[in-house]
Amino acid sequence: MNVIEPSSLPAYATSLGDSHARLDALADISQRLLDACRAQGATQAEVSCSEESGLNVNVRMGEVETVESTRDRGISVTVYFGQRKGSASTADLREESLESTVEQACAIARHTEDDAAAGLADAALMAKDLREFDSWHPWMIDADRALDLALACEQAGRDSDARIENSDGASVGTGESISVYANSHGFIGRERSTQHSLGCALIAGRGDAMQRDGWYSIGLSADDLESAATIGRKAAQRAASRLQPRQIATGEYPVLFAAEMARSLVGHLLGAVSGGALYRRASFLVDSVGTKLFPDWFAVDELPFLPRGFRSASFDAEGVATRESPLVTGGVLQRYILGSYSARKLGLATTANAGGVHNLQIEANAGDFESMLRGMGRGLLVTELMGQGVNTVTGDYSRGAAGFWVENGQIQYPVDGITVAGNLRNMYTAIEAVGSDVDPRSHVRTGSILVGRMTVAGESEG
What we know:
alpha+beta, PmbA/TldD fold, 7-stranded antiparallel sheet, 9 helices, 18 strands, metallopeptidase activity
């Protein structure tokens, strides 16, 4: 990574250039590496090649803090000698370095033990319909323009509310990524994507009364970003709204997780039903396929073919064809999240999720954010979560939180210094509503989630 002055960065220096030509070059390297693996006696092999470039700028209190231009390359080779596996990687494209990488992977494989679950995914599962999903939108922005946007974002927030006393800064980021995955089944898949962001964090009040909050926007196209002024004003409003927080009495209350917090509840589900945790017996959802975990109306679907989806893909990290598939239907867990290795360890079939899930949609059964507040009536709105107090083996959940107290369906005052606790099994069963207020900034697309009852530890028993 190089940290450079804005004036020395040429316009569009971060672009990978002709992405199709670069993909052709990576595909050629992949094929040569596979041939070299075969010549070394490997019975199977796979190669991943990627290139990334980016520009990130940060400002604070009207001054430039950092300008970073990044350009990275990675090549990974994995070989199998029967069911013995070896991997090696490099960022050097010189012929001698590529040859050495293959030799190292083969040497490792020759000295490892057999693993009955090792090997490529089955050849019959390789993707054949390879598509793009409108994910390539380079942002032709130079450092000076990026800095102007960041400065305008921060200034809009500072100007919008006199209570904004300080700033944690504003940032603009843009990146391009291309990759090729190939294996000895004859599969070769290419992907390319861009991602851009604009964000701001502001501080309201002063001294011990200071409160910090922010806002950001992210998209595959710069056209999908909120304006700099809008982001700055939202950051200011969120920070100022947290001034003069109170505590609440310890007790059991309904808890409404704002959409950007609600996706963490889905993330805990994903971790618990992922193959690695399951075959290690380190999940509270071992042997839970076919079990009702949620209310009757609750549904989660994987949608890998969404245009401009953050995780849209024709194939997973092993070349297996992706497919639209329910994860939860009628409140019942339909399947696990498996690549071929974890599937073999469990005696099951891959779900085309090597490398993770590809866009999840959580079905809403309620209206917008205001209607979710009205439906809760009285309880806690959580807008920030802190700490890592989630035990995936038992499902026990305990995290620091901040947000707002709600009475009669209306926000009354900010609260902090509290802990929300429960058990994920019970929390999932107690979900009463999912809002239509979807936060679009993630591949997990969910609105706010209302959990009917949780323990909230505040200042005193009540």
